[in-house]
Fold this protein.
Amino acid sequence: MDSTSKATASIPSRVTWVWTNLKGKRAFYCLGIMGSITFNVMQLTIPFFVAKLIDTFIDGENAAYNLEHNRNLFYFYIAAMVGLTLIRTMIVYGTGMIFESASQWFLYKIRNELYDKVQRQDMNFYNTYRTGDLMTRMTGDLDAVRHMIAWVIKTIIESVTLYAATMVYFFFMDWQLALILLIISPLIFIVILKFRKDVGPKHALLREKLSGLNTNAQENISGNRVVKAFAREKYEMEKFDQGNKEYSETNKKTALTWLKYYPAIETFANLMPIILLVVGGIFIINGRLTKGEFAAFSGLIWAIANPMRNLGSIMNEFQRFKAASAKVMEIYYSEPKIKDAPNAVDRPDRFKGKVEFKNVSFKYEDGKLPVLENLSFTVEPGETLAIMGETGCGKTSLIHLIPRFYEVTGGQVLVDGTDVRELKLQQLRKNIGLATQEVLLYSDTIDGNIAYGDDHLPKNEVVKFARYSAASDFIAKMPEGYDTIIGERGVGLSGGQKQRISLARALAIRPAILILDDTTSAVDMETEKEIQESLKHLDFPCTKIIIAQRISTTKNADKIMVLKDGHILEMGTHEELIEKKGYYRSIVDLQTGGEQ
Ligand code: DGT
Ligand code: MG
C-alpha cells in the first residue's frame, strides 16, 4: 500500500483529535481529571496527621501533657483521618465512573464516525484497504485508544500529582532530604526514555501482525467454500498457525522488553527508602528532623517511588496507543476523492435517463494500462443499449463510470446532458438501478432485500418487481415466501435465483437508468426470455444498459456495442451488425450454429 493511494486529508495531532471527540463530555472529563488530582493530593493527608499525632501525643516534649489535657485535638486528628479517607474513597469512585463513561462516549462517537467514513468511501478505498484490516481498526485499535482515555491518562495524572504533591510536602518538611531523594529521578527518566525507543516499534509491528491475522481469518471464513473445494484446510490451518505464532512471538517480545528495563527501575525505586533510612537517620540524630517528620517521609516514600515504577507501564500503554491511534485516525480523517463538487447542480426531480460518453478514457489508479480509450456513444432516454465483448475488455469498468464509482481519466460522462462530476452523487445514484456482476444479498428476508433501496415499498409492489424479474414463482415455493431469510445465514439460493432477486432490487427503485451487468448469465434461456419480455413492458420510463453474452438478450436492443480492448469495435442494431459480418456476426453464428 503506498500512501499516495490513500485518500487521507491532513491529520491533526492526537490531542486535538481526542479533545474534538470529547465534545459534549469535555467538562465532565475535566471534572474527572480534577477529581483525580484532588484524590491524590489527599493521599498526603494521612501521613500529615500521623506526623502530627506522633509529634504531639507520642514523642514530642509535651506528649504526656497533651495526651492528658488536649484529648479533643487527639479526637479531631482521628476524626479528620477517618473523614478524609471516606471522602477520598467517594472521589475515587466518582472519578472512576467519569473516566469510564467519558471514554465510552468517545468510543461510541468515533465508532459511528468511522463507520460513516468507511460507508462513504469510494471504490479505490476498498481496493486499497483489506476488510480484516478495517475491522481491526474499528475494534482492537479503537479499544486501545479508549484504554488510553480511560486508564492511561488517569494513571498519568495520578502519578504526576502524587509525585509533585509529595515532593512539595517533602520540601516543606526538609528541603535537603527532599533534594537528596530527588537525585534518583533523572536516572529513572533516562531508563524510561530508552525503553520508549525500544518498545515503540514493537507495538507498531504487533499491531500489523494482529491486522494480518484478522485479515487471514476473515478471508478464510468468507472463502471457506473454496478452501473446502480444494481440500486446503490443512494448508490454511498451517498458514494461520504460522501467523498466530508470529503474533504470539511478537507479543511476547513486546512484553519482555519491559523486563529488560525493569531491574534498573526497581533498583532505583528501592534505593529511595534506603537513602531515606540512612540520611533521615543522620538528620534525626542531628536533631534536624523530628520522628514524626521521619514517619511522614517514610510513610510517603512510596508516593514518589510508585509513580516512577508506573512510568514503565504508562510508557508501554502510550506506545500501544500511538500505534493504534495512527491507524484509527487515518480512517477518521480520510476523505473520499469522489464527492460532490462545491458547485454541484441540484437536480431533485427524476432524471430523463440520457447517457452520453464523450471521448472517455479510463485507467485504474493502480493499473498500468488504460482500460478504456477514447470512447464515445449516446443512449437516448428509454433506449436499450446492449454491451458485448470478450472477458476483460472493460465492460464492467465502463458501466461503473455512470454512477461515478470511478473518475474518468479523460473525456466526459454525461447524464441528461450534465457531466456526472457536476451532479450530486446521491441524486445521480438514486436514479440508477444497478445489478452488479457479483451478487451480494443481505442477511435479511427476500422482501427486505428487494425493498433495499426503498424502505416504504408496499408488499404488492415487491411482488410485482419479483414478477418482472421472473423470481415470483420460486419465491412462492419457499417455506415462508417473501419472509424467508436469505443471505449468509439463511436459506441458500442458486446463482440464477440470486441474480433474479438482485434484478428485482435494482428495478424496485424505479430507476431512470437501469444497468445490468451480466445479470441473467446464470438463468436458463426460458426464464431469460421471460425477463427480457417484462423489461420491455416496465410501468415506468427507463433507459437500459445491459451487458450480456447471449444473442437472445442483445438482439432486441436499440443499439449493440461490441467492445474490444477498451475500444468500440462495432456498434449498431442486430441486423446492421449481422450485415457487417464482423465479431458480432461470428458470435451469432457460434450461438445459433450458423443458422442465421
Ligand atoms: P468480464 O466481466 O469478465 O466479462 O470482463 P469486463 O469486460 O467486465 O472487464 P472489467 O471491466 O472488469 O476489467 C477490464 C480490465 O480492467 C481488466 O484487464 C481487469 C482490469 N480491472 C478490473 N477491475 C480492476 C481494478 O479494480 N483495479 C485494477 N487495477 N484493474 C482492474
Ligand atoms: Mg465484468
